[in-house]
Every structure is written in C-alpha cells, then in structure tokens.
Design a protein that fits this description.
By secondary structure, this protein is of the alpha/beta class. It folds into three domains: 191 residues, FAD/NAD(P)-binding domain, CATH 3.50.50.60; 133 residues, FAD/NAD(P)-binding domain (3-Layer(bba) Sandwich); 94 residues, Immunoglobulin-like, CATH 2.60.40. Helix content is 22%, strand content 34%. The strands form seven sheets. Strands 1, 2, 3, 4, 5, 6 and 19 form a seven-stranded mixed beta sheet that branches. A five-stranded parallel beta sheet has the order 8-15-9-10-11. A hairpin with a 2-residue loop joins strand 24 and strand 25. The mean pLDDT is 95.
C-alpha cells in the first residue's frame, strides 16, 4: 500500500483547483486521480466562451480555462494518474483504484478531496413515454459528439429542458446547420442563466415553450416526431394542447446529478436537497479528513465558483494534514426557509469560521425586487437586498464572524421574500 499526504479524486476544474490550492498551502505529496484519459473534465467539450470572467477577468473557452489550471499544475510536483477509476474510499482515507498500467492499487492519505463532478439525468429518470428509437440523447452527450468527436447528431431537433447545457446546445446545433424547432420546459421559468436564454435562444429565434413537456415519442428505428403538451399548475399535461414536431433528434437537458456513489459508500452524511454530502464551512464532510467540492457537492452555474469553492477545500485539506481535526465548541446548522431550495454549507463551526462564511443557495421561483433574510429562531440577524433572483442562478451571501456570534441557538435559516429594494 502506498501513502500520500493528499489524494484528490477527479481531474476536472474542482480537482485541479483543490490540488493547486493544497500545493500552495504547503502539501508536497499529492496524488490526483482522473478516470478520463485527459485532465479538464467537462470543460474539454465546452468550446463556447464565457468561462473565467471572475477567476481570470477574461472570457475563455472551456478548454482554455482548463488549460490555465493544467499549466499551473505542471509547474508543481503533484502526481497525476489519468485513466484511473476509483473503486472505493474508506473512512480511514484508504482509496482503491484501477488503471491499465498498474492494475488494482491501494493508497492511504492524510486527507482526501472528493471532486467527481456530476452526470446528466436520462430519459429513464423522467419516464418520457414512447418508442425506444435512436436520435434521443442527453445534451451533454450530443455536445461531446459534436465538439470532440466531430460527429453531427441530427438535422431537426427539439430540446427538452432549458438547463444551461440544453440552451448552449440549441445554439451549437444551429451554428452547425441544424434546425432547432423549440426548447420545451416543464416549469414556468427557465432552468438556465438569463444570458444563455438571450444568447442561445432569442438571438437565433428559437422558441422557448414554458409550462410544456413532451408527452409522446414517435419513431421506428429513428425518431420521427415528438408530441408536446402544455401542463397545468400540478405539471400534468392538459388534454387538447398537443403539438406535433417532425424531428430526427431529441436532446434532453433535464438536470444534473452529483456523482456521489463513492461518497454514499464511504458513509458520509448526505443532503437530499442537493444530492451531495453535508459539509462544514471548510467543505469537510461528516467523515474527518474527507472534503467535497464542485459539482459533486452542489451543481454550479459558473466554473469560476467551482474553482473558488474547491480552492477552499484544498486549503482546508492542507490544514487538516498539518493540524488534524478542527476543534469547535459550537456548531450552527444552516437550514433553508421560505422560497429557498437548499444551502451549502449545511453546518458552520463558529470558532472555525475565521472572518466569516460564504453561503450558497438557490431560490425555488423567480423574484424581482427581493430580499434574503437570515434568522436565528425569531430573531432576524441579517438582510441582503436583491434586484432579481431565479432558480437557474445560484445565489450567495457572506455571513461575517460577528454576525455568526449574534446567532442564538444552534440553527440559522436562510429565506427569500419579495421586497422593495
């Protein structure tokens, strides 16, 4: 069995950021494991721009953004193993993985960072009725075919779901000469960033059908038609509203799921709201010395925020390696209140919070002028004004050290409400 100070699982933007941060914090023996043949993760197939505005104050493509971190990593002595599939992680931070050059191997580390990313929901997960013909793909799979393998997936397409990948693929398909007939969204609002709605749909005159879903798939060997219906307030199809679109391709952009099979098998406490691990203010899970960051923890909008969060996880892992467990006499649970879907982190160790803690969350409906409130019991301890909030856009607030000290009890609640700014 080999030993390392730190093992990072995942070589996408989260794993790269965590490894670099830990190295900069003084950890010199780091192993990074990536199951793909190349570092960079999902960024390698994201050839559109818009990455890096926060991190580098530049507008980069996905491969360019990943390349910046890969170049920085190459200036360190971090050991990188690609084509390495992790099989298990144990609470004593023992990692088993398999690779073509070394077979099944075992390493034990002083700390572990989980950065496995996320995957797409498939047709089976949403139970779309109809035949099992070809031409039905997730938006991410279509993106890989076009941008990496150079293969066109179809000529007349309908997109189900308005997540960011689906919106971006609507534009990408159009630029490659396909006709995108419509983007169909079950909810009364889009699940993607507003900038993507404008740049990928409106700029190309692609209809966005809100409060609609696909109720039929027609085709023998290849997809021929899809049936689209309006839905009511309970998200049930309304009879008589059917529209039929003749198409050969259906792209599914119906949500992302954190890749947490390893985390669950490890025995870490999970949050059903995020499908990720429950973490403290420093991204540490309920298993001491095991940290989680990036899309394996919560699905992010912007890769810049993934890098920022993962840098905190890497620095915290380095601190754990140096000093062991974080002592704390008082821990606050962070809960979601009215109109808020989830919060990350879910727990804050007050004495370990330093100058304060950044809390990420999402709202469950579209807001205009509004306010985010933080309460401890009946007492409001903070209020943050907002001009606009939407489910497709992650929000964050900063809770300073002094504010946390004011919180009475062991629970603080984050809520959203309509309010004049």
């Amino acid at each position: 069995m080999k030993e390392h100070q730190l093992t990072v699982i995942g070589g996408g933007p989260a794993g790269l950021s965590a490894a670099l941060s830990a190295w900069e914090a003084g950890v010199t023996d780091i192993l990074l494991l990536e199951r793909d043949r190349y570092l960079g993760g999902i960024l390698n197939q994201c050839v559109h721009n818009g990455f890096g505005l926060h991190r580098f104050q530049e507008e980069l493509t996905g491969p360019e953004y990943a390349g910046r971190f890969i170049d920085m990593l190459e200036s360190t002595a971090v050991q990188v193993k690609t084509d390495a599939m992790v099989l298990s992680v144990s609470p004593d931070r023992t990692v088993r993985y398999v690779s073509p050059d070394g077979g099944c191997q075992t390493v034990r580390s002083g700390a572990v960072v989980l950065a496995m990313g996320c995957r797409e929901r498939t047709r089976g997960a949403i139970s779309v009725p109809g035949t099992r013909c070809s031409g039905i793909l997730t938006a991410g799979a279509a993106q890989r075919f076009i941008n990496i393998e150079g293969k066109m997936v179809g000529r007349r397409a309908v997109i189900l779901g308005s997540g960011d990948i689906g919106l971006i693929m609507a534009r990408r398909m159009t630029l490659e000469g396909a006709k995108v007939l419509a983007c169909v969204e079950l909810m009364p609002y889009s699940g993607g960033l507003n900038r993507n709605i404008v740049q990928c749909l409106r700029d190309y005159d692609i209809p966005l059908l809100l409060s609609h879903t696909i109720t039929g798939i027609i085709g023998d060997r290849r997809l021929e038609k899809v049936v689209v219906s309006a839905v009511d307030g309970r998200r049930q199809p309304i009879p008589g509203t059917e529209q039929v679109f003749a198409c050969d391709t259906l792209l599914l952009s119906v949500g992302l799921l954190p890749e947490n099979e390893l985390t669950r098998a490890l025995g870490a406490e999970m949050d059903p709201r995020t499908n990720g691990a429950v973490v403290y203010e420093n991204m540490e899970t309920s298993i001491p010395g095991v940290f989680a960051c990036g899309n394996v923890l919560q699905v992010h909008d912007l890769v810049d925020f993934v890098s920022e969060e993962s840098s905190r996880a890497g620095a915290a892992a380095a601190a754990y390696i140096r000093s062991g467990e974080t002592p704390s006499r008082r821990t606050l649970a962070v809960e979601n209140g009215s109109a808020v879907t989830y919060t990350v982190p879910q727990r804050i160790r007050v004495e370990a919070a330093g100058k304060g803690v950044q809390v990420f969350f999402r709202v469950n409906r579209v807001f205009g002028k509004s306010a985010v409130t933080v309460t401890a019991g009946e007492k409001r301890i903070a209020r943050f004004k907002r001009e606009h909030m939407a489910p497709g856009e992650m929000e964050r607030i900063f809770l300073p050290e002094g504010l946390l000290a004011l919180a009475e009890g062991n629970v603080i609640t984050v809520s959203a409400e309509e309010a004049e700014v």
